[in-house]
Amino acid sequence: MSVHPLRSALHRSLFVFAGEANWGRAAAAQWLTHYRRRLWIGEMAPCEFDPVPSGKARQWLGRELDALVFDAHCGFDPDAFGAVLGAVAGGGLVLLLTPPLAQWPAFPDPGKERIAQYPHGMEAVGGRFLSRLAHLIQTTPSLPLIEQGHDPLPAPIQPSAQLGPVDGEIKLTPDQETALEALLRVATGHGRRPLVLMSDRGRGKSSVLGVAAARLQSLRPGSRVLVTAPRPDSVQSLFEQAQRLLPASVRRGLRLQEGNGEIAFIPPDELLRHPQEADLLLVDEAAAIPLPLLERLLTRYNRIAFATTEYGYEGAGRGFSLCFPGVLNRLAPHWRRLRLQTPVRWAEQDPVEGFCFRALLLDAEAADGAVLSAATPDSCELERLDRDRLVTDEPLLSELFGLLVLAHYQTRPSDLRHLLDGPGISIWVMRFRGHVAAAMLNVDEGGFDPSLAEAIARGERRPHGHLLAQTLTAHAGFVAAAGMRYSRIMRIAVHPALQRRGFGIRLVSAALSDAEKRGLDFLGASFGATPGLLAFWRKLGLMPVRIGMSREAASGSHSAIMLRPLSPRAAGLFDRMRARFLETLPFLLGDPLQELELEVAVPLLEGNPIAWSLNEQDRLDLEAFAHGRRDYAGARLALWRLAAIRSAQGSPSALLGPLVIKVLQGRAWSGVAAELGLPGRKQAEDALRQAAGALLRTKEETLETDL
């Protein structure tokens, strides 16, 4: 294994060809003649190129390109643009093909179809994002703009002599070498000393993880290194680097076998559902994984390293760097943080990277907490922003988007375009002395006519958008839900310095008042269910009416829908949806929701109006079970009724836990013991008997009807 210091790279070049599509494509083809590793993003290209749709741009993550054409005539996808620019090596060439800049905002960009919401077409999608992008192109001195009919086409730039690898060796910068030593120390030194590796993109973060995984196989043959990340394509370069350093290894997809050792990728949710032993766990792009999942991984694995991009097209690193250290301080106080500073793929102050950051607000920052320290909900100005004005106020836009990035683990450049141009979206902000203290995004949904509502219920139609109306109609089975009109709160972001002080409550109150004034039927929200979020929305009068049957790949949580009815017709439908949800939830916990977290299941069960009670035989069975005279199978029916009754009454989770996990969810005794932190089955059974006895003694508040 040979690892040497890396030589300096070159700046990349970005040219914009603005004009008709055929003119731009012909010019780009002429310029790319002598480039070897080249990529054309778009659906159409000259015959000598194989175009790649923007939706597949992520496949090039971890690879290196000498030249890139991004054809915006086929649509400008901000996520694809941000991602694929990172693949262009130092000294490389980027060509952005656009319509004439003055016409671009009104151009029928196919990317608008992804933003449009039924019944509106792309004509209803704004052009603010593209207008801002065109302005940045025109006002960036380092960005050459070549306009058809105005500028002669210059001679093509020839490929740099330094493009491409010098030899087959993997070369590390000095700070990569430091990171490599630290990663190996996590695997071979004292346990419970995790490493957090931060960097901007292009610093070789994933590569050094691959080198560390391979080096561990050499130092300790037979080692098992597990790798996890939000998406498999995030770790392609990691496995490529490891394979280069382990030439005798056998690779099958994202699994590398080296003798008795291996390096294997496992998605984070699967890793938590089915824990596996590992000598080292590497978590790449950790900022794009929800904090609760990271905390559980940290608890489960003694030797773990987290790596993430602080500023990049994922847009989540800033929130991670502020929030996760608190978790580490609590659970692993001997953790260490390192930062990769030196660019690997391009030189410092690369103009292409600088333009990309400005165009996509990759480095947007929320307001400094110090300037907001005296803010209170009453001292802030609450306003709904005019998006035409917002797009021209760069400091406000940057501060707003920076706060959204800070508050959510997966905020992407496409969210910026949706924010500026999405139909029906309202942006509310609370400002203190001009700075954004809190923000909320709302969208109007629903209002389908009866025939379309029936088609949605039958699964024949799925109009774009309208999450609440369609989910409650197609999946919960309430056809009338499609005809209701909703104000859905998409995002709430409160500055970390001001959280738990009532800012979120004031924002939701504003949304509630606005929805009532406009005669809407429901105020609603959909989110990955956590105990804190369930409590927050319930406090504001929203109640759960649906829980997703499977975990979201992005959040690792089950999505919940919570509603508050605002109109008389909505109140009746809400009562039916709520009753049906509570009636079926205890049964759903026994199969599709068997692994739903206890701290989520218990608050969802609370408030069940179903008339359940214990009969005399139930009480006898429960008494016998509590005192060890009846086995679990003999008392299961009575235990099920007791669990349903007491969970509906809001009994303490400490008592309900054993009954919910074993009786309602039907988990194996080993799973019950593990969830309760007990050694084995006997202790788990004892805990269940004690809980049943305590809950049986609790005064019943049920109705008269027996099951």
List keywords for this structure.
alpha/beta; Rossmann fold; Aminopeptidase; 7-stranded mixed sheet; 4 domains; 24 helices; 22 strands; 707 residues; globular; 39% helix; 8-stranded mixed sheet
Descriptive overview:
The structure is a single chain. The protein is α/β, with parallel strands linked by helices and 707 residues long. It has four domains: 3-147, Rossmann fold (3-Layer(aba) Sandwich); 174-340, Rossmann fold (3-Layer(aba) Sandwich), CATH 3.40.50.300; 369-578, Aminopeptidase, CATH 3.40.630.30; 589-707, Four Helix Bundle (Hemerythrin (Met), subunit A) (Up-down Bundle), CATH 1.20.120. 39% of the residues lie in helices and 19% in strands. It has 24 helices and 22 strands. The strands form four sheets. It has an eight-stranded mixed beta sheet with strand order 10-11-12-9-13-14-8-15, with helices on one face. Strand 4, helix 2 (78-85) and strand 5 (88-98) form a beta-alpha-beta unit. The protein is globular and about 95 Å long. The model is unreliable at 1-9, 164-168 and 700-707 (pLDDT under 50).
